């Protein structure tokens, strides 16, 4: 390393330690590998595939997995996946809507119904019977919100979501299907902000399409 005057300088604090530094060839590329460092501050993942398409898919999958881990570590909390959160909110908001004695009840009920789009879409994309699975899922979450705190078994129904491989409703926590809480909260906030932005629109400007010109050479 050189300073602004061009003199070579080196600080002892920049000195690191490694058990092995080697140069290896991966396909057509030469890479320098640093192994056995004392401080594992960074790492590299080497992906190999038959073609560029498969490598792109692998890269996207690894990137998504690392992003989920990153968000989980940042928030420190997870929630069950498979549509469990949306189903629980759907039941809760439907019950809450009945306590509102004004026209806001309709808005709350519609928002609750819109939340079911997530588990319905999951079921449809997996070629499963969405109507049957959503009905079972809602029954589990309705039971979990109506039982006493002593009934542990039915209380745990709040963790139930969709198992799209077997096509049934299961305990997502015991199956390890979890989502970062921060991602779910941000998704709900974004959906609410979009709804508010649309509802604030009070004027619509319609632009009529240009009239099509008649072809003088067309046969009548």
- Write the CATH fold name of the domain at 80-199: GROEL, domain 1
Structural class: alpha+beta
**How do the strands line up in the largest sheet?**
1-2
Helix content: 40-55%
CATH architecture of the domain at 80-199: Orthogonal Bundle
How does the major sheet shape up?
A: 2 strands, antiparallel
Overall strand count: 6
Radius of gyration: 28 Å
CATH superfamily of the domain at 80-199: GroEL-like equatorial domain
Number of helices in the DSSP assignment = 8
What string gives the helices and strands in order?
EEHEHHHHHEEHEH
The poorly predicted ranges are: none
CATH class of the domain at 80-199: Mainly Alpha
Shape: extended
> Overall pLDDT, averaged?
86
Distance between the termini: 84 Å
Strand content: 5-15%
Describe this structure in words.
The protein contains eight helices and six strands. The protein is an alpha+beta fold. It has a two-stranded antiparallel sheet. The model has no long low-confidence stretch (mean pLDDT 86). GO terms for molecular function: ATP binding; ATP-dependent protein folding chaperone.
């Amino acid at each position: 390393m050189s300073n602004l005057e061009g003199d070579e300088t080196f600080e002892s604090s920049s000195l690191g330690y490694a058990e092995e530094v080697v140069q290896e060839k991966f396909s057509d590329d030469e890479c320098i590998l640093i192994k056995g460092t004392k401080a594992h501050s960074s790492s590299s993942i080497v992906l190999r595939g038959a073609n560029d398409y498969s490598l792109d898919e692998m890269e996207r999958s690894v990137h998504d997995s690392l992003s989920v881990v990153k968000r989980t570590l940042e928030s420190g909390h997870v929630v069950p996946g498979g549509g469990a959160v949306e189903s629980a909110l759907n039941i809760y908001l439907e019950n809450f809507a009945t306590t509102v004695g004004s026209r806001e009840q309709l808005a709350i009920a519609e928002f609750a119904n819109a939340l079911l789009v997530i588990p319905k879409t999951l079921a449809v994309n997996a070629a499963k019977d969405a109507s049957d699975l959503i009905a079972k899922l809602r029954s589990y979450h309705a039971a979990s919100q109506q039982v006493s705190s002593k009934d542990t078994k039915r209380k745990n129904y709040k963790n139930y979501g969709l198992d799209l491989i077997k096509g049934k409703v299961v305990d997502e926590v015991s199956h390890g299907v979890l989502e970062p809480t921060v991602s779910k909260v941000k998704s709900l906030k974004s959906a609410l902000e979009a709804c508010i932005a649309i509802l604030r629109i009070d004027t619509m400007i319609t632009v009529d399409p240009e009239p099509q010109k008649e072809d003088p050479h067309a046969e009548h």
